[in-house]
Every structure is written in C-alpha cells, then in structure tokens.
Amino acid sequence: MTDLRVTVGERELVATWTDDAPATRAALEAALPVGGDGIRWGDELYFDLTLDVPLENASDVVPEGAIAYWPSGNKLCLFWGETPASVDGEPRAAVPVTVVARLEAVSALETLDGGAQVRLEQVG
Fold this sequence. Notes:
The protein is mainly β. The protein has one helix at residues 22-31, and strands spanning 4-8, 11-17, 34-40, 44-48, 59-61, 66-70, 75-79, 92-103, 116-122.
C-alpha cells in the first residue's frame, strides 16, 4: 500500500509508513506536503524541515530506502545506499535518526547526480 508520493527532481517514487515512530509520523503527516532543496551526502539526500518531536527508536544504521527525521538538525533524510559514515556498505546516518517511512524502490535514485528538489505528499 502506498502512503506517500516522493518526488526527487524529475523522479517519482512511492513510500509506506513504518510503525516504529508514531509521534514523528503524526507530526510529518500534519505538515504534509513538505519539500526543499535536497543536499546530497553520499547516497543520502536531506532538506530542512522542523517538526516538534524527539527521537523515537533512533538508530544511525537505517534500511535502504529509509525516510528519516533528524530532530536536532531539523532535517528530513532519504537514504538509498552508502554515505561517508557507512561501514560494510549499509546506509548510515551521521547521527541517530528516526525512521518514519520507507521508499518502495530506490533504483531511480542510483542515477541522481548531485542534489535535487525533494517533495513529499500524502497519497489519497
């Protein structure tokens, strides 16, 4: 089931909510649609977003396709591969983040060159 439409430049992706961060999900849902200028850090894009939530079930190692919130940095992050902090190829944030959703497929991001405009919106 698709919950979110994620646009990265000209690429359209879909994502589903995870169940591990209900407060962060509620805050992000209330803020949708959101977007900004994505800054690339390895195979991660992040953009400015302020949500009034603490870390929930935080981890620095995240699954491929993770959409995560970094409260202390006020950033929403998309992960699809290695970052400069990665060990053994796993997607890894610089600091612990809250995973709130997951992209269903990340192959379209593999050809991304540099940053891009990012937008998330509710489907339906």
